[in-house]
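Reminder: ligand-aware prediction takes two inputs, not one.
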Amino acid sequence: MSQAQIIDGKLLALEIEGHIAKEVEEFKTKIGFAPGLAVVRVGNDEASKVYVRNKELACKRVGFHSEHHHVPETISENDLLKIIQALNKDSKIHGILVQLPLPKHISESKVIDTIIPEKDADGFHPMNMGNLLIGKPGTLPCTPYGVIKMLESTGVSLEGKDAVVVGRSNIVGKPAALLLLQKSMTVTIAHSKTKNLAEVVGRSDVVIAAVGKAKMISGEWIKPGAIVIDVGINRLPDGKLSGDVDFEEAKKRAAFITPVPGGVGPMTIAMLLQNTLECAQKYYKL
Ligand code: GUN
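Here is what comes back for the chain with guanine:
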């Protein structure tokens, strides 16, 4: 039986990092210092700790200046906003990211709105989201941006094909759907209330899974020859990681599929670096 080609996110991310590292050298020659990313982490969420560590390591690999601002769970909303306002004015910093989720007493939308759009490395600010909606240039959210790069890496023509995005979050589902629409695909956004998900997935040439439920998408649902991009990272009871798609079954039907781990995860970080570089280049009109 033929098996899907694996889209190696780790390898693709390394290639992108290679390009960024070269651009960082040029930037330093022209400007005199490196682009800077500030990551703010609130409290001790274990997953956030790992993600932020990986972002810091990636910054080191490409030669960025990076700062990690770790503040306690009990910080007031006002004090957190003050940290962001200081970073907005800090000339060493060109990109700011506040790791989500935040404790319940802090409004995520207030935090996102406080980061100036020019330093919004996540692309979550309403100005950047609005630009994405109307097709104007702006900073793209990192995970959907990485998803598009992975689709492009297959070399398959997307125009006019059917895509389904399973999940409607502001961070992944909605922006991913808009980017697929920009590629002239016919896009369905499915979610927890969608009737007959199996049928919707079964007619799709591209499946983007972003629900956060292990193996929720059965391998038998996948249309033969489809491209499957799995954004989910779920911890199974045995401690192993699994995506939202039943990988072993889906790879028997798909033409291309992303693994978990080693798929979308490393690409999200690569695109965060790309966004920060672009924020710095735009600031200095390079
Ligand atoms: N938490 C999970 N994914 C993300 C992301 O892409 N950006 C931020 N800031 N927090 C997250």
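The radius of gyration is 19 Å. The chain has a mean pLDDT of 98. We will return to this case in the review session.
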